[in-house]
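Human: Not sure, check this?
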Amino acid sequence: MPTPAPHLVDEILEEIFLRLTTPAELARASTACPRFRRIITDRSFLRRHRKLHPPPLLGLVNVDGSFQPAEAPDPSAPLARALADAADFTYSFVPVPSSGIPWHVRDVRDGRVLLEACQVLETLKDMAVCDPLSRRYVLLPPIPTDLAVQEEYPFDIVPILAPIGDDEDDMSFKVICLAIYGSKLTAFIFSSVTQQWCIVASIGWSLLGVHHGPLGPCMLSTYGFCGLSGFDNESGCFYLASPLLDKLFVLDTQKMEFFTVNHHTGYYILLKLLPGRILEVLARYDDPHRIQDRSMPGIVVGREGYLEMFSLIGDHSPNGSFDLYHTTQQSNGESSNEWRMKNIIPLPGGHDYFTMSAAEGFLFLGATTKDQVDFDRESGPPLSRTDWDVDYFSLEVKTSEVRKVCTSKGKFFHAEHVHWYFGYPPPLSKPSV
């Protein structure tokens, strides 16, 4: 019997290794022999494997940089603990900016961390992208002042890490900055390939259906731009929820253009009228502009051309119950499409919940067992300044499975202070010097 050609053997082995579902299984297989290691560590193979097997959720990164690994019985707990032991989530390997302002975390994607250093109300910021596992980093050049300021000064510039595209080198990265002006919304992008910033999209508020511009720096909490509510790798869209305007603001990173989706249609109108949605009781205890954070929907994109929205409805009295109302809308760009009810997902009892964000096919919630309704404002600080023991839950969109990820100290309102860490990062192209 003739011996198979070496390249055919490699192709067969690659197909076998593609069926290994976890990084731990790949790592064990790569130690068997040099040939296995060469196949498994090849970048084209790793790209195919990541596309077939979504990266595991390993934990969360707080805005101060600390890492909270996923806890048992979560199946990713051993990998998460290994990451916590091996990586440097103090970012001591990244030089402190000349201003002396310490780094804080603004975004996490593909295992990489976007760091930012700026003073209060400062819009032109120092930024860096780093890999806490390999301790490599790249310092970003500042956005040129003439590019950022243009004819008016931005109220804020919100940085986010863009995902790696299918046709892009996985060692490269991009950073998108959303600049909020009085008259428009603009997107800047930095590419590690070109090492330059450029404007890729800009649109006036009136064209987005907003007939009055932002009201200064407070507009971020007022209009819901404090964080991105969801992302889908397949369509490449970011969704910014704006509850007070009944709109989703969408940035399509493939076409690099903005558009909006109307909230106020179909079943969503009924959801707005349910008692647990408006949170009148909590509004008496804290800043009303912050109350929306607990009722902000998590947005993800369905795999078959549907937007999927999860609205938190619950009873905030002691021993009250909470549910997620799952609604869908066809995402073919027609404004007449209505939100339709899909199902109601009950949440584990004994908690008071708030929605946080969505990523990689998961919706994330925070919850506390403390009695929020009986909180005495006269004898203590406002809710938004109080530390609580927060339990973090994930909901997998495909299966509607709710699972506790970990527990950590946190603020009652702090969705923008937590970032979710998935998988292990591809290497950065080079360390900054």
User: Anything to note?
Assistant: The CA atoms of residues 188 and 199 lie 4 Å apart.
